[in-house]
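Trying the structure run again after the queue cleared.
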Amino acid sequence: MTLPSGVWEFHGHRRFKDRFYPEIILAARLTASRNLVNEAFPGKLSSSERRTITERFLSKVHDIPHWKDKAYAIAPNEVTQSEASFLIERQLAEAELFERAGGSLLVSDDTRVSLQFCGNDHFRWSATGQGVAFRKLWENQINDFNVLDEFEFAFDNQLGFLTADPNEAGGLRLQGILHIPAVFFTDGFEQLTAELASEHIRLISISGAKRPAPGGLVILTHRRSAGLTPEEIVESMEAAALKVARRERASRRAVMAASRPQLEDMIARAFGILKYARHIALDEFIVLHSSLRLGIDFGWIRGITPSALDLLAERVGPAYLEMRTSAVTEEDANFTRAQLVQETLINARLHFDETGDDRSGV
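Done. Tokens:
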């Protein structure tokens, strides 16, 4: 199977009004999982039983106009391994969906929402949005779920909706993607992580490194959803995201006041490597991309926008590069990644001055 061309496109995260700290809180992701009562989890069912459950869901989802007419329908058993890797990399599907027959996948025409049937759970709804979009995403999810009211889902009074993975019990998972390089620069990451842990919130560095020059992109998520209402989870995640954003703003002010030359040097080095290097590994890109984004926020890098960086970040993953550019080996991917980065930065330039042109809200 060849994936529909529209699935390859990245249209940006769904935009909502009233964005707070847009240069720090980049995106939100919501995943809701459900399983039918008195039915085994998909991994315990036969392919025909999974197919029957999938068809039951699809018959109702097709009653939603924007899913019936505009969604891309993907048969997991017909995609190639490379195509499956891309869908997993883009977080449109779980690996389990491609490991057994009987499931299905729908992807919205803007690729921001996906519906998965008989992957790890009977039904999974996943969506992304810009900024602190947890509440808006949840409201949209409720609207889509209304058509499924006739189904009875497995539910426990203490745990909430039951899921195949006990760690996902409760059936709702929220994640935020935040950019907090100044927190790392001022060695405040561990303290912030400890503070959030006491509130049952996790903060994870995407780069996996702390020093030196760690990537400033982090994932914010809650430790548990079992026994909590969706409203409680949404409120706790909103509060945590805003707390992290305020800490990053304060850290940026501190860095600008005390260590501006070092900050300029870090950003200039990252810019030089990304603009001229011929070989860029993915983990190196993640770190340098963070510094580049910070330079744009401060007005020190001109000729490129944050949205262009978002698009670039979606195109440098190994699965995307293999499918779209035939970069099969890791070495091929590293060279191709460098070419894509330089094409994106072709008009970008450094611009330092005495006063700075801070666009980050510091």
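Confidence is low (pLDDT under 50) at residues 208-213. Worth checking whether this holds up in the mutant runs.
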